[in-house]
Amino acid sequence: MRQVLRKLAEDRASMLGLALILIVLLAAILAPFLSTHPGDVAEFHTEIRLSPPNADNWLGTDRMGSDIYSRLLFGARITLTIAVVAILVAVLIGVPIGLIAGYYEGLGSDILMRGSDVFLAVPQIVLAIAIAQTLGPSIENVILALSATYWPFWARLVYAETRSCKNETFVEAAIALGCSPWRVMVLHILPFISSSIIVRTTIGMGGTILTAATLGFLGLGPPPPTPEWGRTIAESREFLPMAWWYAAFPGLAIFIVVMGFNLLGDGLRDVLDPRLRRASSGK
Amino acid sequence: MKILVLVVNRVIWFVPTLLGLLAIVFFISHVIPADPAAFAAGENASAATIAEMRARLGLDQPLHIQFLRYVQSILVGDMGRSIYTGRPVVEDLLSRLPATLELTLVTVVVATLIGVPLGVISALRRNSWADHGLRLVTIAGLAIASFWFAILLQLFFSMRLGITPLTGRVEGWGPEPITGFYILDSLIKWDMETLLDALHHMILPVATLALPAAATIVRFTRAGVLNALESNYVLYETAMGYPRRQIVWKYVLRNALIGTVTQIGLIFGILLAGAVVVEAVFDWPGLGMFAVNSILNSDYNAVMGFTLIAGTMFIVVNLLVDILQGIIDPRETR
């Protein structure tokens, strides 16, 4: 474990990714203290609407005259909440399904895996759109739509990993010692395959944030006046090219957080997954 | 003969996958909503219309009967009517299919032409500055929200510089449709003006879509080439004194590219998903724009129709890729 962390710390790209994530995380937690106009999530100042970045409104104002910088900070809370909860639910559904289907063989396993294959056979955003449209725009429904479409990634991964380590000596030893199937799965197999789950989850965060922002852009995210980043970009379109700051900064915020997770995920994979390490960074 | 077995095998899996897709869409449209009839009838429907819709859709029947009837109606091409256009959803979707396919296919070609050479360079010069630079660029390319990138391109190239069209497929109404693919149509009629105009309109949407697609191709090509370089047959050939250039061009690339072909299915999915928002930003009259307009109009049947057709296209492409891979990779059919 310590060795893994040391290797990770040596990789400049991963550290950059970690730094980007921490910046956004701090922005979300400290939003009320860091923001210059904390009330602007819901307050309007129409007399200064669409002002370019200046000393008072660092990143300019939007169509209601609200401070874009302050709204971005509060938007980070929404983005991270959606992504963390959605991924958590997806992991909690996908990992047990993958473990059970991988450990037992038979018709039940086949049905579980074929089921998740069907979900993987459709682009995630398409399914998420259909679900979010049916449920109506709100944070909870975005989370539901995302976890319902993303869980098969973990089911597939855990299934494949469980199958491949099922015949390893340590699993056979545990079974021979009389461990119950649950004990073998949770205490022996799960720790063994946890590194792949961690890598998949880190990379999945980036993808989920992008999908959530896309739902927001399409008007399927949390309703106004929520300062959701995707929705803010959609609002800005009628004021282009004049109010460039209105579109530019929320997109930059999305880019920073997704880039952070992608960089960290990439680095983690190099360090944790020896099979891929060979192909991606030499010996 | 082995190829035939492979094809039959894959096609057999195609049917349950498609049924699974139908089951998911059925579940979303018939089971999740408290009153599916109200959804199907639209936002402003009267109580009488909703009641009529309930009877017509058979929503008073048990669920498994409903599902059978649903599959039946989809099989004969009935996805209901669009509340907004008033036409059958199938007609609306089919009339917009060529625009999306043209955009997607051009993007796949562009992304492959850029991605494969860059991936090969990245692998052959592993750990050079070019390799590290490309790693950063590809990770960044996959981290940009495509709707944001599209808007930035519009802002800079169309609004500031004025060198690319802001929206649309062509100026005015476009050529009389033969295939619906404007590039093909203008070539058939040898109408160079329309062809250039159509290509001009494609630059920004294709650039937007090609960025994440090319980034994916670079990463997979790089991994594929590195794997091939470290394989035993390359070790053997090197030991036998084959010139490196010959090993790379004759053996490594051919084997590495087999892996890249399989990625086209994945990339097609990225593109279909990307098309939803990119078409909306560029007013590209394809499936994606239709889906977005349907969302804005709460046109429920249309959104579900889009989900079905996008899912089906994705499944079909993956089926074709599987078969293609079997044909070019002899190990699959041995």
TrEMBL record, chain A:
Keyword entries, A-Z: Membrane, Peptide transport, Protein transport, Transmembrane, Transmembrane helix, Transport
InterPro entries named in the record: BP-dependent_transpt_permease, MetI-like, OppC_N
Membrane-topology annotation of the record: Multi-pass membrane protein
Listed PROSITE patterns: ABC_TM1 (PS50928)
A Pfam match: BPD_transp_1
Cellular localisation: Cell membrane
Domain (ABC transmembrane type-1): residue spans on this chain: 76-265
Residues passing through the membrane, by range: 12-34, 78-104, 197-221, 242-264
Major site of localization recorded for this protein: membrane
Coiled coil start-end: none
Family: Belongs to the binding-protein-dependent transport system permease family.
Listed name of the protein: ABC transporter permease
UniProtKB/TrEMBL annotation, chain B:
UniProt subcellular location: Cell membrane
CDD domains in the record: TM_PBP2 (cd06261)
Keywords: Cell membrane, Membrane, Transmembrane, Transmembrane helix, Transport
Domain of life: Bacteria
Domain ABC transmembrane type-1: 97-325
Membrane topology value: Multi-pass membrane protein
Keyword Lipid biosynthesis: no
One Pfam family it belongs to: BPD_transp_1
Membrane-spanning residues: 12-32, 103-124, 136-157, 198-218, 256-282, 302-324
InterPro entries attached to this UniProt entry: BPD_transp_1_N, MetI-like
Family named by the database record: Belongs to the binding-protein-dependent transport system permease family.
Protein name: ABC transporter permease
Lineage: Bacteria, Pseudomonadati, Pseudomonadota, Alphaproteobacteria, Acetobacterales
